[in-house]
Write a structure and sequence with these properties.
Layout lengths: L7 H15 L1 H8 L1 H15 L2 E2 L9 H7 L10 E2 L2 E2 L5 H18 L3 E3 L5 H12 L5 E5 L15 H5 L1 E5 L10 H11 L3 E4 L10 H10 L3 E5 L4 H5 L12 E5 L10 E5 L1 H15 L5 H14 L2 H22 L14 E5 L7 H10 L2 E2 L1 E3 L13 E5 L1 H5 L4 H15 L5 H10 L8
Parallel strand pairs: 1-12, 5-6, 5-7, 7-8, 8-9
Antiparallel strand pairs: 2-3, 4-10, 9-10, 11-14, 13-14
Helix pairs in contact: 2-3, 4-12, 5-12, 6-11, 8-9, 13-16, 16-17
Subunit structure: Homodimer.
Protein name: Serine hydroxymethyltransferase
Family: Belongs to the SHMT family.
Amino acid sequence: MAVAGTTPETDARTAPYAAAHAADFDALRRQDPELAGVLLAEYERQTAGLQLIAAENFASPAVLAALGSPLTNKYAEGYPGQRHHGGCELVDLAERLAIERACALFGCAHANVQPYSGSSAVLAAYAALLVPGDTVLAMSLPHGGHLTHGSPANFSGRWFDFAGYGVRPGTGLIDYDQLRDLALTRHPKAIVAGSTSYPRHIDYAAFREIADEVEAYLIVDAAHTLGLVAGGAAPSPVPYADVVCATTHKTLRGPRGGIILCGSELAARIDRAVFPFTQGGPQMHTVAATGVALGEAATPAFAEYAHQVVTNAQVLAGALAAQELPPQTGGTDTHLITADVSALDLTGLLARGRCAAARISLDKCALPSDPVPTGSVSGIRLGTAAVTTQGMRESEMERIAKLVGRALRGEGGVAVEVAELAAAFPPYTRL
């Protein structure tokens, strides 16, 4: 029976690919059993434990199929209709679909879906709008900023003059008064809104007002929240930002890659900054997989998922508080939670290790109260995107908080209970 949009002749031509695709893993196991074993072990790790790393998720089987497709073979430097290699007519269709879906989903005039990562997307935004030495305001790293927000170990800190704003000591919320004062003092060329561990919604209108007051560009790093925006579970930065950068994994549940959204007036500058300035040929299998993820994110089922992610995070935050793990800012508006482990006489690093031994994957993180600079942090960072993809809901969040608390206290038998819980919610029904 012909697939919709094909003919019996095309079905016959594609049958060898379909058969080979189904046998891909068997071929890998025969040719390279060592690496096949690594893949199987990682599959077991992901499915036999709790994946609470806020930056991770489970991509859908459709996304994985696009990633493992023949599009990986195609070199496609340039943009649709303007490639440097021949034979790009079909991959042009894939990229145009991804662009059209991004623009429709997020209500923007232009999207670039070629960045290799979120960091690559931020680099391109800086390259499009700034020159080395320009002043930029961003959330300071100890308060939740990302490496690309001015770390001296990163290109951002080496090429630009970053000044960091932070959060209020009493609430842990962004200090917008401090941000405005800093902007009036430093007169930045750009202001970055976004973080890697801030659990609350950001007031994009306030950022826009401050940026306009000092005639600065507003760049939003929505790496963690863009999927929630797609599902209507978080406010959109698009109406306020000059440029929005994000990853396509995390809450968007796509492949590991980046995306940039902007208005038509900056489209050409952004595209030139991605290619040829900061990148070479795009990874067309990832671009196609991004298109698949964007199509999934436009569905009612994804909107339900995004809202459940937030509900789960709020329940988990409250349950962690009962385990002597107080969440920063008193809770969360997103998928992300940061919690203080110092009441249990632990560091973030030790807490991460104890959880890992119990098959619970999460991150250590610095808290605003930690001394700077420091080699020791007192926080952990958790996220609910992956466990929600598995189908877990509020009751499971209560159980997870207890398991985390027991693991941190060094109790025995936690790994067995974690494996039992994970087994009841497999992310994939088949290999």
